[in-house]
Design goal:
The complex is a heterodimer of chains A (about 110) and B (about 325).
Chain A (H helix, E strand, L loop, with lengths): L2 H22 L3 H25 L9 H32 L19
Chain B lengths: L2 H22 L3 H21 L3 H25 L12 H23 L9 H6 L1 H4 L4 H9 L1 H19 L10 E2 L9 H24 L7 H17 L11 H24 L11 H25 L2 E3 L4
Antiparallel strand pairs in B: 1-2
The chains are: A mainly alpha (about 110), B mainly alpha (about 325).
């Protein structure tokens, strides 16, 4: 196993971890955080493709690398938007969670 | 097995352990701090994948700005921390199985990638001389796929418009409610006076060197944004009202110049965003310089959030 494959597995596991956090954590801020972990995993997979494409004296294929840079910027924009939406939701409703069994949002006494 | 590979296995294990902690730890504040460490470790992984440009971006965004944004949000949500029910055990088991399956499938894909990897590196290298740049990643961003980069900057501006539009009507055009510390400590003020000159120099250097070596407009702009935010947190400079005309000018100057250079391509070369032969490097540097400035201001205002007061408090 070379280092590209090693970090590839690492990226694959991070995608699963991020998805798990996204599904199971009821707090929206933690969901956004988990989604960012998931995103890093996807970017790492891109990085592995780039590293494997090393040719012509370059240590990696610059095209996927540039795509990842663009991806990180767009992910940050989306994260900001999500966080601000969440804060606005909190201002309006006093809640910032989603519970799986809670169909009538905001009426139960789950606040601690 | 070489020492380097042992180091890499350790790095991967540490990254995964911190990612697990980020997901499962109960306190939100701890999760965010772990996420910032996670971003910095991911940057080291990018260095090991020989993608230093990406490493700089990941460290600045993943380790820096995202963490800062999240800390600000967590501070506001402190009252309702740990509210909400965790899903039951069957649900968590099902989610765990689904996620394991997805990770396993991706792992199999990684393992069965073709032996001869498809690559555009030879083409990127062959045309590098025409762009006048030395950094192939910068060449992809500003020459081969400049349109992507232009749209990316527009996405940043659109995100800012989205953030601002979430403000209530009565404070429109007012001052963002950016406050991380109510009372800045003397250490913070000292750092906010000491670091900006160095930080600004590093930001400008990152943009300038990006043409030939790892670096670039985005990484440089992020450092500039960080310095600006530091000065605002320490209250050495007030948070500006979003209706300020010079501020709005700074936001759009980068994209506007970039689009103007693109349109110039119709006249002087033969397509949108095509550079006339021999002038590509100076044009790219002009576009990058203005973009660095615009990116810095945009990122700073994105973290500062929507307006909350009509006038300065």
């Amino acid at each position: 196993m070379n280092s590209a494959t090693l970090f590839g597995f690492c990226g694959a596991i991070l995608v699963g971890l991020g998805l798990f956090g996204l599904i199971t954590n009821p707090q929206l801020l933690r969901k956004i955080l988990a989604f960012n972990v998931l995103g890093t995993g996807v970017f790492l997979l891109f990085g592995v493709i780039a590293r494997r494409g090393a040719a012509a004296g370059l240590e990696g294929d610059p095209v996927p690398q540039a795509l990842v840079i663009t991806g990180i910027v767009v992910a940050f924009s989306a994260t900001t938007m999500a966080v601000v939406l969440l804060l606005r939701l909190y201002q309006e409703t006093g809640e910032a969670t989603i519970s799986p069994d809670d169909t009538s949002a905001g009426t139960d006494g789950s606040r601690s | 097995m070489t020492y380097v590979f042992v180091f890499e296995v350790g790095l991967a294990a540490l990254l995964l352990a911190i990612a697990v902690w980020t997901i499962v730890v109960r306190a939100t504040f701890a999760a965010i701090v772990f996420f910032m460490i996670y971003g910095l470790l991911a940057a080291i992984v990018w260095v090991r994948l020989f993608a230093v440009d990406v490493a700089l971006t990941e460290a600045a965004i993943g380790g820096g700005l995202t963490g800062m944004l999240m800390l600000g949000a967590a501070a506001r949500l402190r009252e309702i921390e740990n509210s909400g029910e965790k899903p039951g055990l069957p649900m968590r088991l099902a989610a765990g199985m689904l996620c394991t399956l997805i990770s396993a499938a991706l792992g199999i894909v990684v393992f069965s990638l073709p032996d001869v990897a498809p690559t555009l590196a030879p083409m990127a290298k062959a045309n590098l001389a025409q762009t006048g740049l030395g950094n192939p990643v910068a060449a992809v961003l500003f020459a081969y796929r400049a349109f992507d980069t232009l749209l990316e900057k527009v996405v940043l501006l659109l995100a800012l418009v989205g953030v601002w539009s979430l403000a209530p009507d009565r404070v429109w055009g007012g001052v963002p409610g950016f406050r991380v510390y109510a009372q800045p400590s003397s250490i913070l003020v000292f750092l906010a006076q000491l670091l900006p000159p160095i930080g600004i120099m590093i930001g400008v250097y990152m943009f300038w060197t990006g043409a030939s070596y790892p670096g670039g407009a985005f990484q440089g702009g992020t450092v500039l944004a960080a310095m600006w935010l530091l000065v605002m947190i320490a209250r050495l400079q007030p948070v500006p009202a979003i209706s300020l005309r010079p501020l709005r000018l700074l936001l759009v100057v980068g994209p506007v110049i970039f689009i103007a250079i693109g349109l110039l391509g119709f006249v002087l070369a033969d397509a949108f965003l095509a550079y006339p032969a021999g002038y590509s490097k100076p044009l790219i540097i002009v576009a990058e310089a203005t973009l660095t400035l615009s990116i810095g201001v945009t990122l700073g205002l994105l973290v500062a959030g929507p307006p909350e007061w009509k006038t300065q408090q």
